[in-house]
Specification:
Helix content: 55-70%
Number of helices: 2
Structural class: mainly alpha
Number of strands: 0
Oligomer: single chain
Order of helices and strands: HH
Radius of gyration: 18 Å
Strand content: under 5%
Shape: elongated
């Protein structure tokens, strides 16, 4: 049984401080991350559908893909919450 490691390449610690030529903007990174979450959810739903139609009996990988999609969605929601909190803090600043 292989256990895959989850790596978030877009959020490397050293890359956040660098803002050089060709660096992706925050909105591009956000859009790309949301599309990755959507892909994981689509893959999980396809595997679940195949399992319910008895086209496959691979419950193990189906559950792993569902959990990956769930965790990535939860992480995306936490990031969204942090962004909203930061926006609200900025709006409280008096000019």
């Amino acid at each position: 049984m292989n256990i895959e490691k989850v790596v978030f390449d877009d959020f490397a610690l050293n890359e956040g401080a660098k803002a050089g030529k060709g660096a992706a903007s925050f909105s591009e990174i956000l859009k790309e991350s949301i599309s990755k979450v959507a892909e994981l959810e689509k893959e999980a739903s396809e595997q679940t559908l195949r399992l319910t139609k008895m086209e496959t009996q691979d419950v193990h990988n189906t559950m792993i893909s569902v959990q990956k999609a769930d965790l990535s969605f939860q992480m995306m929601m936490q990031i969204r919450n942090k962004i909203i909190d930061a926006y609200q803090e900025i709006m409280k600043i008096q000019v």
